[in-house]
Amino acid sequence: MRHVHAAALALLLACQEQAPPVTDTAGPGLARAYELASADEGTTVAHRLLGLERRFGRVCNGQEDASWWAERVERLDALLEAVDGALVPHDPSNWATWDRDEVTAALTTVDRAMHEEGYLVCIGIGYLGRTFGPAVAGGLDAIPTRIELGSKRTCDVDLSAEHRGEAARKHLSEGFHPYDCDLGSHIVMSVAERWGWPMTFVHIPGHMFVRWHFADGSTMNWDTNKGRSVSDDEYRRNKGWKHVLEREDLGYTRNGWLEDEDEASIRGWYLTWLFSRTDSAACKLDALDMALDTGRPLPATSQNRFAWALVTRPALRSPDNHRMALTLAEDAVRKDPQCHYWDTLSCALAANGRHAEAVAVEIAHISPDSPRIPYFQAGMDCFEPFVAQEGGCPKSGTHDSRP
């Protein structure tokens, strides 16, 4: 039986019943993935996250290819070396003396160097393996607002920073490496790690940026999508975030938006995405274990994604996993009582045999006419696809959407 980390077990009810074994569908890939768990995957946060992607997105799926890893690390190393070279005039090791203008100048240099090396903001990428993979084909004479990446993927180009234009025109024509807010933050934080800069990660719904901490306690946010500083208040005024950040400020939700995060927290986020990319059931549970083992609270969106998979995917069906899903789903609705999280909780209750409570959740938080209610009343659960798909929440959110 696959066991979760002890710290997570402490949150669960005592379990006497043994779960059936989880079947690993990735064959020898899982054993190799465990070998990589103790391997040194690199010296910066971007290297280490790329190592997680190699493990869960490639090896666990039986797709290990030495060239995949080597080529991406080579490109990452080359980019960091180019950025270091561009920073020399700023004396980056002497950052303790910098004021806000000097920090802005240094981070602008980082952004400019990234674009000059062919790394362009292309919102909607998601993984470092894509950023440091082969260049996206060029041949674009004009600067578009949206680029087709193939396999039904698109990305939105952000060239709002004035210094990006010339480099963008060159690489959109010749080929470029796309990155978005998460991946840009990972790269900037890798530069910061090399120089010892006092920076942290920060999340708001659907977005990540980084934050510089000055010795006097003041801070400055840096948005890698925009290539400029953006204040907390500017994020709060943005119509896309205004409502959710107001709810956070008033204490209606507790997602930790706008708070400082360290690498351990970011590993939890990244493992959430990789959980969905991993085909092997055993590897999925290993990714969940690692996310719980970071020692940092998981955001509600990660808890919801994990819980939904544990109560809808037959390969993950076991009493232990049902109880874990219930713990995660209950905590998610405490942090952020939105419809899709209640929807997951009702399925978690049903998976644990608590069908009357599942019906009560559907009536109170989904709809008194939820089409799922008769199934729960009949003792069914969401491992049946037609039951899981009967959720009555608006389509503006999903159980498995990207955090």
SSE layout:
Layout: H1 6-9, H2 29-37, H3 45-58, H4 66-87, H5 100-116, E1 119-123, H6 128-131, E2 146-150, E3 153-157, H7 165-174, E4 177-179, H8 181-195, E5 199-204, E6 207-213, E7 219-222, H9 232-237, H10 242-249, E8 260-261, H11 263-277, H12 281-292, H13 300-310, H14 319-335, H15 339-351, H16 355-366, H17 373-377, H18 385-388
Parallel strand pairs: 1-4
Antiparallel strand pairs: 1-3, 2-3, 5-6, 5-8, 6-7
Question: Could you walk me through the main structural features you see in this protein, from its secondary elements to its overall organization?
Answer:
The protein is α+β, with helices and mostly antiparallel strands. The protein has a domain at 73-230. The chain has helices at 6-9, 29-37, 45-58, 66-87, 100-116, 128-131, 165-174, 181-195, 232-237, 242-249, 263-277, 281-292, 300-310, 319-335, 339-351, 355-366, 373-377, 385-388; strands spanning 119-123, 146-150, 153-157, 177-179, 199-204, 207-213, 219-222, 260-261. Strands 2-3-1-4 form a four-stranded mixed sheet. α3 (45-58) runs antiparallel to α4, α3 packs parallel to α11 (263-277) and α13 (300-310) runs antiparallel to α14. Mean pLDDT is 84; it is low at 1-40 and 399-403.
